[in-house]
Automatic annotation (TrEMBL):
It comes from Gluconacetobacter liquefaciens (Acetobacter liquefaciens). The keyword Magnesium does not apply. This is GST-like protein. One of its GO terms (molecular function) is transferase activity. The lineage of its organism: Bacteria, Pseudomonadati, Pseudomonadota, Alphaproteobacteria, Acetobacterales. Gene3D superfamilies: 1.20.1050.10, Glutaredoxin. Residues 88-234 form the GST C-terminal domain. It holds the Pfam family GST_C. It comes from the Bacteria.
Length: 234
């Protein structure tokens, strides 16, 4: 059974959605990132980068356990393993392009927008403007692409759509609003609502809810989440 190392944040959510869509058997291993559990040696042996998500598949390609880290790598690995949600061979250029667009653009810029609005000390007006505007630009790229199509790559639902869903689901936090955050991007909004209505989404949202994760933002949390901001402990 696949071991799924999880914290309730956007990148693990993508993998949770694939696992629920595919029906692959898995067990959740909570990693409380605000407590610093992602830095434990046992987890670093699975992901040297100290980030969630990660998986360990006991039935790897050579019949031995395989570790996979980074949400995009995991989605590709599981899609290829199962032959599901990967589109057709003709779709592959678009599939890879949109996966990387999310991995290198939408995800990081959204994450930095959240960081500077909610965690960074002092006046961060320039950084907030920079990252929110870039997040908005990425939303516009997606919106324009989805004007006359249902999904990002080809004509079928794929891992590219799951990957986008994970971050678009947090648009209200990225934009720091309780209003209708996707109103400026109606095609993206329709796309998100289509995916969000899938039964597997409700099951993915329930992943990890039986575990109490730390929510306080104290010094321990800041040091665990952003260790490069702090000098090493002597």
């Amino acid at each position: 059974m696949i071991r799924f190392y999880f914290h309730p944040t956007p990148n693990p959510a993508k993998v949770a959605l694939f696992l629920e869509e595919s029906g692959l058997p898995y067990t959740v291993v909570p990693v409380d990132t605000r407590k610093g559990e992602q830095h434990d040696p046992a987890f670093r042996a699975i992901n040297p980068n100290g980030k969630v998500p990660a998986i360990v598949d006991p039935d790897g390609p050579d019949g031995k356990p395989a570790r996979v880290f980074d949400s995009t790598a995991i989605l590709l690995y599981l899609a290829e393993k199962t032959g599901r949600f990967i589109g057709t061979p003709a779709d592959r250029p678009d599939l890879l392009s949109w996966l990387m667009f999310i991995a290198t653009g939408l995800g990081p810029y959204s994450g930095q927008a959240v960081h500077f609005q909610y965690f960074a000390p002092g006046d961060q007006a320039y950084a907030i403007n920079r990252y929110r505007r870039e997040a908005e630009r990425h939303y516009q790229v997606l919106n324009d692409h989805l004007k006359d199509r249902a999904y990002l790559a080809g004509t079928h639902y794929t891992i590219a759509d799951m990957s986008a869903w994970g971050w678009i689901d947090r648009v209200a936090r990225v934009m720091n609003t309780t209003d209708d955050p996707l109103a400026p991007w109606p095609h993206l909004k329709r796309f998100f609502q289509t995916i969000d209505a899938r039964p597997a989404v409700a099951r993915a949202r329930a992943v990890g809810q039986d575990h109490v994760f730390k929510t306080a933002t104290d010094e321990q949390s800041l040091r665990a989440l952003f260790p490069s901001n702090y000098p090493p402990t002597p």
